[in-house]
Amino acid sequence: MRLAHHHIEKRLAAGARELTMTCPEREQLLQAYHQAVAAYANAVSELKHANRDQFPRQFAMADAAREKCDRLREKIDLHRVTHGC
Question: In this predicted structure, what is the pLDDT of residue 13?
């Protein structure tokens, strides 16, 4: 029983090390996503200040920012599936 317990502890410790290791690609994707979400939030916020003439352009900018967030989120999800991090 003692040997099994030791084996479990070793596996848990190895798993904890894997979780704390950073993946440069993952970090880059998360940073890009963070920036894209901030840009999207800013673009949406600007809609309330847009007049009738500015609104279509501002709305298109907000929509483009949302699409960029969506694409980055898909890349993050794919990275998680393929790399496990």
Answer: 52
